[in-house]
Amino acid sequence: MGAGGRRRGLLADTRPLRESPAFRRLWAGSTVSALGGAMTSFALALQTYDLTHSSIAVGAIGLVQAVPVVTLGLFGGSFADAVDRRRLVLATSGGLTVVSGVLAGQAFAGLRQLWLLYLLAALAATLESVDGPARRTFLPRLVAPERVPAGVALNMISFYVSFLAGPVLAGVVTAAAGLRVCYLVDAVSFGAALYGVARLPAMPPAGAPARPGLRAVAEGLRYIRRQPVLTAAFLADLDATVLGMPVALFPALNAARFGGSPRTLGLLYAGLAAGGLLGSTLSGPAGRVARKARAMLFTVAVWGAAIAGFGFARVWWLAVAMLVVAGAADTTTVIFRGSIVQTTTPDQFRGRVTAVDYVIGAGVPRLGNFEAGAVASLTSPAVSAVSGGLAAMAGAILIRLAFPAVARRDPQSRAALSGN
């Protein structure tokens, strides 16, 4: 294979975009909307701080958003397994458009009401707890099974591009026209997302629809428990996010070791995002891994080792480098987990299983940051980072020993190797 072929094999596989017009429209619309959402997150934090001059008040935005994600996310999956998922996402995305419009309206009107900001943030998170699990069920219906890992990677690229570019764009817009325009851009950007979903075919769940509620949620959890590979995949992500999340430690470590400059603090945050973008862009080999569950445990161990290395780092460039490695390992872990969830779950359970995936990905990291901060308060930020990283590595080893099934080859990989 020549240099060009090796380069193509390393980069993210874009065939889902070329082969599926429906996925291409959905991906493009979601990317535009995600950029708008990142601008709203920036504006919401800045407006809250301008009103209160309190970091606790800004942190409370995350709290009011985490509660509905954790408490309602699983129920969102049961709705996704009961109705046409396309119509459900159109309804929730329409609701999110209205919320963004109200945020823009209150900013243009100069209302300056903190309770209203919290209420709208909580309402948006509530809608997202239904929208997110339902939206994740689309991918296996739009691309061939062997293209699912590539589709997951492309979705991760979309996420990290918006995560990096959104705040920068929001800063420029805010400086030029005020934060109220950020809200307005977000509301308008939902038009792209709605168009991408509206052009999809009907997406009713296969088989008899499940009745939304506790019984349906319990059925989904029992299904996961009966699938050792799925159980191991979710436990691996819990291991990484509960034990190894370092974000809450950034300000203290920056002050203690790197001079406390806002610039170095920004580099620490950017390190994780840059690593995530790098990992998703260079995700070509991840789609060809035959034993994704085992590979996921390896990337969790790499994440833990990088976080421990971050805790030991005494110079800023080494700390940022460790975070880039951690971010790349994390996004590769997400690609593996997303591929496992999408290819091993029957359609009638897909909404509920992807809801568990959504809750773990969107809600549990906040608990991990709380755990890291608590350990730091009892010991030190450095001890918290090092011990958390080492604990995540140990957890990956224990999961591998407890679930021998993770060593098995993926069903779609076996089929590909056999020529079927």
Reconstruct the topology from this structure.
Elements: H1 3-10, H2 15-19, H3 21-52, H4 55-80, H5 85-109, H6 114-136, H7 139-142, H8 148-177, H9 179-198, H10 214-226, H11 228-244, H12 250-257, H13 262-281, H14 284-287, H15 292-312, H16 316-344, H17 347-362, H18 364-378, H19 381-402, H20 411-418
Helix pairs in contact: 3-4, 3-8, 3-9, 4-6, 4-10, 4-17, 5-6, 5-9, 6-17, 8-9, 8-13, 8-16, 10-17, 11-15, 11-16, 11-17, 11-18, 11-19, 13-16, 15-16, 15-19, 18-19
Strand count, sense and closure of the main sheet?
Answer: none
Please identify, by name, the CATH architecture of the largest domain: Up-down Bundle
Number of helices: 20
Look at the structure and give the CATH class of the largest domain: Mainly Alpha
Distance separating the two termini: 25 Å
Structural features, described:
This protein is mostly helical. The protein folds into 2 domains: 10-212, MFS general substrate transporter like domains (Growth Hormone, Chain: A), CATH 1.20.1250; 219-420, MFS general substrate transporter like domains (Growth Hormone, Chain: A, Up-down Bundle). It is 82% helix and 0% strand. The protein is built from 20 helices and no strands. The chain has helices at 3-10, 15-19, 21-52, 55-80, 85-109, 114-136, 139-142, 148-177, 179-198, 214-226, 228-244, 250-257, 262-281, 284-287, 292-312, 316-344, 347-362, 364-378, 381-402, 411-418. Helix 3 packs antiparallel against helix 4 (55-80). 51% of the residues are buried. Residues 413-420 have low confidence and may be disordered.
